[in-house]
Structures are given as structure tokens and as C-alpha cells.
Design a protein that fits this description.
Length: 188
């Protein structure tokens, strides 16, 4: 069974600039696969595992069939992961489900992560970056302070995908190129 990791639920990030551990993982990440009890997120994890290849091979984004995850789509956001000119990671929203568009109050498709979440971008960037670097799913729990709704919490499952068909010459075809985030909202 693949490791799943949970981020500490103190706001979005207690300290988005706290040093990462020796493997580059932000503080508060630890294996807690049994804590993922949300039915929507369990369904998303099961779907991702069914797409994964033998021996823990990451699924390719070409295997995503929207009809197979119809119930997940409103709560799903897809992030393209790429390198910027300096070799750092950057994330751009490829597609967002209707529930997420409603919660965000704007259409995020085509926008960069840093254009959407202001001061809380640093923490989100570190979380998404950990999924890319570690090549495994993570989940996190947060308050919706970025949406002026701190009385709501959400749980986000982040699932990595490769993109064999689009890798550049010399690029690793197993590189994580897409993150599928499925979000479940919980009223406090």
C-alpha cells in the first residue's frame, strides 16, 4: 500500500517558510494513511490506485477518464506542474470543478497558483512541491481563512500523475507533470 501523508492542521501553514526535513518535505508531514476516512477522498484514492501500474508506477494523465470519476469532478482541481526558468516548480490550474469555482468565487482555470491565494500561496506551493518530489499522494487539512470562511475546513487529497506523451527531449517521462487535487469541505 502506498504511503499517504497528512499535513498538520494549524491554519493553512503554521510557518510556510519553516525548514523542510532532510528529504525536502515540509514540517508536519507524517504517514497516517488510516486517518483518511472521508468517503469522497477514499473514492479518489481508490481510483488513483486502480490507475497506478504494478510496483507503484505512477499513473499517466492520459489514463484520466472524466466519466470514471463523475462524482469527484465538482470537487477536483488539476494543476499542471512544470519548471520555471530557474529550475523551480510552478503550478498552473488546468481545470477546476464547479464546487471549487463556487467556493473560490472565481474561475481559476489558466491561472498560476501565486495569482490565487496571496500570502497562503507559499504553503500550498510547498505541499504541491512535496507531491512532485516524493512522487506519492498526500493529504492535508486546513481552515478556509483564504476565502474569509475560517469556520469551514477542508481536506485536500493530492494525487501525482506523469505525462509520457508530453515530456521534452532529455526529460524524464516519469516526471510528475499533473497533480489531481480532490477537496472535501467540512463545516466546523
Amino acid at each position: 500500500m502506498d504511503p499517504l501523508v497528512r499535513l498538520s492542521p494549524t491554519g493553512l501553514c503554521a510557518d510556510p517558510f519553516a525548514p523542510a526535513d532532510s528529504e525536502g518535505v515540509p514540517p508536519g508531514l507524517r504517514p497516517e494513511i488510516d486517518d483518511l476516512t472521508d468517503p469522497l477522498l477514499r473514492q479518489a484514492l481508490g481510483w488513483w490506485r486502480d490507475l497506478a501500474g504494478p510496483g507503484g508506477t505512477l499513473p499517466d494523465r492520459s489514463r484520466i477518464e472524466p466519466a470514471a470519476i463523475k462524482a469527484l469532478l465538482p470537487n477536483t482541481i488539476l494543476w499542471d506542474a512544470s519548471e520555471d526558468r530557474s529550475g523551480g516548480l510552478q503550478f498552473r490550474c488546468r481545470l477546476a470543478g464547479t464546487m471549487l469555482v463556487e467556493v473560490l468565487g472565481q474561475e481559476p482555470t489558466g491561472r498560476w497558483l501565486h495569482q490565487m491565494f496571496g500570502a497562503e500561496t507559499a504553503c500550498m506551493h510547498r505541499e504541491l512541491g512535496a507531491v512532485v518530489r516524493k512522487r506519492r499522494p498526500y493529504f492535508s487539512e486546513h481552515k478556509m481563512s483564504w476565502a474569509d470562511k475560517p469556520y469551514y475546513s477542508y481536506i485536500r487529497l493530492m494525487l501525482p500523475f506523469t505525462h509520457h506523451a508530453r515530456h521534452l527531449p532529455g526529460d524524464d517521462p516519469q516526471r510528475v507533470a499533473l497533480l489531481c487535487n480532490v477537496v472535501s469541505f467540512v463545516k466546523a
